[in-house]
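quick q for whoever's on today - can somebody do inverse folding on this one?? i tried earlier but teh output was garbage lol. tokens:
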């Protein structure tokens, strides 16, 4: 808990267990632990999660909660997953994220993006696509967007594969394993839409029929639809959704906005270090050298007179504390609708979005570097990852 670990992976080796921590979305290998020690820990975890203690081959899954300082407000929920292998029992301990506190102001939108996205609460109907790579915070953004509307003036519902949190005054519907034998996700979406909601959050719209239903509900039935997709940019989102729907006019009629995002780590405010970047760095990232004097990077580990490392109490030596969003956003104007209808290529649509003032995510990330929120190396790591 004190290291803010969100996932622990215990993998059996010949004599020991390999231990991996995930902190702020980045994994790091820890010192291997003796097999006897981890065996005791695994048995204890299985007891907490109400799993069968002697079952070491079949996959099992359960949950438990931890109270910090005996305070229910500081409760954290954890999921335990076990599975057998030829080397022994592998275990994952995953912290269940709390999405309930997220507001639009907390996501990481810049001022112009925030004002543009907040104004979506004033539209009467339309489709908003919310996208990002895997584990990029899309669920948090979807929930924040739904929370931007008054639940007492609007009937708000969701359809989710698995809800991440309980949302106050919003009806949440799950597409469960039992549904897979009797219906499809799109048919369940049809059922949700027939209930007469004003606003619907659809996680996700990756199926052709689901995408078409979202379009029709937003353009013809007077509903506000928020639908999520997996994509790495606004343009990729647009291209993917056009192919799913197969009708440029239907998309143009329905679409109100596209929001694409990913997450970067925030530099620890207690130990970050300022430095003056060289001119080559300014040139490489097209940053006017007269607009910024200092960049910041994770603090280097210092040592006391005995040679013992002095670890930052806030970030525990990682150099980062928490994550924030990077966003590409575009509001669809009547002029852009016409471009969507008539464009022959996705590149034409992308050029029109750019002309309309859309900033690329890389540009947004550099802005966060210049104000000291994150480091240039963190940005490079993020965009060179497999999801970039």
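ok took a stab at it. sequence:
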């Amino acid at each position: 808990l004190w290291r803010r670990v969100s996932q622990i992976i215990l993998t059996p080796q010949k004599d020991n267990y390999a231990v991996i921590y995930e902190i702020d979305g980045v994994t790091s290998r820890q010192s291997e632990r003796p097999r006897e020690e981890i065996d005791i820990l695994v048995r204890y975890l299985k007891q907490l999660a109400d799993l069968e203690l002697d079952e070491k081959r079949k996959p099992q899954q359960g949950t438990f909660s931890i109270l910090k300082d005996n305070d229910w407000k500081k409760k954290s929920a954890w999921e335990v997953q076990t599975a057998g292998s030829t080397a022994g029992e592998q275990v994952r301990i995953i912290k269940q994220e709390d999405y309930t506190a997220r507001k639009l102001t907390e996501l990481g939108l810049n001022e112009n993006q925030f004002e543009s996205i907040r104004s979506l609460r004033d539209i009467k109907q339309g489709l908003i696509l919310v996208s990002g790579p895997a584990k990029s915070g899309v669920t948090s953004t979807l929930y924040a967007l739904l929370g931007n509307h008054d639940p007492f003036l609007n009937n708000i519902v969701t359809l989710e594969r698995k809800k991440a949190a309980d949302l106050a005054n919003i009806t949440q519907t799950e597409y469960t394993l039992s549904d897979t034998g009797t219906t499809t996700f799109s048919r369940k979406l049809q059922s949700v839409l027939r209930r007469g909601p004003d606003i619907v959050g659809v996680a996700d719209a990756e199926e052709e029929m689901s995408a078409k239903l979202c379009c029709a509900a937003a353009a013809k039935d007077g509903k506000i639809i928020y639908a999520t997709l997996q994509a790495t940019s606004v343009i990729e989102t647009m291209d993917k959704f056009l192919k799913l729907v197969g009708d440029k006019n239907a998309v143009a009629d329905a679409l109100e906005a596209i929001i694409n995002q990913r997450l970067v780590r925030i530099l620890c405010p207690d130990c970050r270090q300022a430095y003056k970047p060289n001119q080559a760095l300014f040139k490489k990232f097209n940053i006017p050298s007269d607009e910024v004097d200092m960049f910041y990077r994770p603090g280097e580990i210092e040592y006391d007179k005995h040679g013992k490392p002095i670890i930052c109490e806030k970030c525990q030596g990682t150099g980062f504390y928490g994550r924030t969003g990077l966003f590409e956003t575009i509001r669809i104007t009547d002029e852009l609708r016409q471009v969507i209808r008539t464009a022959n290529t996705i590149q034409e649509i992308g050029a029109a979005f750019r002309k309309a003032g859309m900033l690329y995510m890389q540009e947004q990330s550099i802005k966060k570097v210049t104000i000291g929120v994150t480091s240039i190396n963190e940005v490079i790591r993020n965009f060179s990852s497999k999801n970039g």
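fwiw The mean pLDDT is 91. also The first helix runs from residue 35 to 48. so keep that in mind when u check it
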